[in-house]
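Attaching the record inline, Q. Sequence:
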Amino acid sequence: MQPLNLALLQSATHWHDPAANRDMFEGLLEQVSAAADVVVLPEMFATGFTMASAEVAETMDGPTLAWLRAQTRRFDKVLCGSMVVADAGQYFNRFVWVTPDGEVAHYDKRHCFRMAGEHEHYAPGQARPILEYQGWRICPAVCYDLRFPVWLRNSNDYDLLLLVANWPAVRRNAWTTLLKARAIENLAYVAAVNILGEDGNAVRYDGGSGAYAPDGGTLVENVGDAVILEVSLSATQLQEHRANFPAWMDADAFQINL
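Structure, as predicted:
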């Protein structure tokens, strides 16, 4: 495994305006270094965190996924983030993963944020896929999923937990604490992207995007700035940490009933 280079795009988004968001993120993509392998956009990057699922949803053949495909080819990088998707008569907060060779994979957010009524407008996901890229095993997750360690428990099946979010500033202490906890308990890297500014529901966000080592150490982090955070993850350091502190060998076996 070679190092995996991430670019985390921390930005405000335009409320319910996918075309404006696509244009904005395209401009940011032009600023990402050539070294980046994977570019991470936030949760619902095309619309903001909205409960108007029926109004803003696209299909997997819609303009936002077509845009992602075009940008992956243009920049020769993986692009990922979540968007509102209509599929089989339901709406999903769907994390999409698009590679330069045309592969599209997805994960539907399992834990819908009850306090905002997300569970009334979106269906929960029924699977936790592991994405594979350049030898890395990647577990995708979306925002509120972060609060559920059983769902995110590493059964020696992933190396990186990759989270996209619209996590309000008022709960940023919980955000940072849980990101580090997930890294420590799972002996894995954690990388997360959050947004900035105020959305159409007058909820404020202050970023806090970052990446954390398997021992919980901060690799990169930013609060409050519109910024592209780039970080290189070392497979060698990950393997050494797991060998030197093999807590995974004492983990309890369990099964999740969906």
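The chain has five helices and 13 strands. The longest strand covers residues 78-87.

More tomorrow.
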